[in-house]
Amino acid sequence: MLREGILNMHVFRTLTEVRELTEDWVREYNEERPHDSLNDLTPWEYLAQHELRENSNLGRH
Known about the structure:
61 residues; mainly alpha; 0% strand
């Protein structure tokens, strides 16, 4: 995925440019895109749903 998403799409001038674009891509890939394993939610959406469910169960002990 990294090769297709970054390395095959850009001509880099410096190593710093490679690092910056790669870090941005990895962050977006891991944090902003929906994941199959999270029912097609982003990690932040999944976390928000999980916390909402957990908080709604606090009074049910």
